[in-house]
Design brief:
With about 100 residues, the protein is mostly helical. It has one domain (about 10-95). The chain has helices at about 10-15, 20-25, 30-55, 60-95.
Length: about 100
């Protein structure tokens, strides 16, 4: 089975903006899913919180929880994106060699 050459910069950019996309583009679908799952789980609190804000039904405990969790999840999400970007870049470089 022949492996197609992939552009490392395209893989890295895709994986930074959508974690796991670069891995899937390189043909490593399970590896891409592994990077996608934390990205989805870490963005869930934002969507859940803004849904309550738009409806005007924010529970009393919610602002305190998001004040603590949101900065932590943003940092972890950024770290996951950087690792996924590096991994996609290295995968694409391996297919070129």
């Amino acid at each position: 089975m022949a492996v197609k050459e992939r552009d490392p910069y395209l893989c890295a950019a895709g994986s930074f903006f959508f974690p796991g996309l670069g891995q899937v583009y390189c043909g490593r679908i399970p590896r891409g899913i592994v990077f996608l799952i934390p990205a989805v789980l870490l963005t869930f609190p934002y969507g859940f919180f803004y849904q309550f804000v738009q409806l005007g039904q924010v529970p009393g405990w919610w602002p305190y929880w998001t004040f603590l969790i949101t900065p932590i999840s943003k940092i972890i999400d950024f770290v996951v994106r950087v690792i996924a970007t590096y991994d996609a870049y290295k995968l694409a470089k391996l297919t070129k060699e």
